[in-house]
Task: inverse folding
């Protein structure tokens, strides 16, 4: 699935409304760690056809950041039907990201 970049809170809400399952990657515009993490995440997302992978710059989606209590980037939040069901803060390795994706599928389909 294509990696979706959203510009603001409204665009993030619209992207989540179009996706049954979604992972939102909260990044910082000046975050060097986030750039490297994004490369890995893009590669992993290609393996999960049923999950929308969305990137949002934390400073552009402040309502979501505040609502979710995100205090640092990179952060991942998994959504099922527009509801946050899982989160990961910091820089996980590829196996942990795959486990995160698997847990999201389990939350949706049991």
Result:
């Amino acid at each position: 699935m294509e990696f979706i970049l959203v510009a603001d809170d409204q665009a993030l809400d619209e992207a989540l409304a179009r996706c049954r399952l979604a992972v939102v990657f909260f990044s910082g515009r000046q975050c060097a760690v986030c750039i490297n993490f994004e490369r890995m995440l893009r590669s992993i997302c290609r393996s999960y056809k049923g999950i929308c992978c969305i990137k949002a710059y934390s400073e552009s989606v402040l309502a979501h950041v505040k609502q979710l209590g995100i205090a640092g980037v990179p952060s991942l939040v998994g959504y099922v039907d527009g509801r946050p069901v899982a989160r990961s803060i910091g820089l996980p390795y590829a196996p942990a990201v795959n486990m995160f994706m698997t847990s999201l599928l389990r939350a949706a389909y049991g």
The two ends are 22 Å apart (CA to CA).
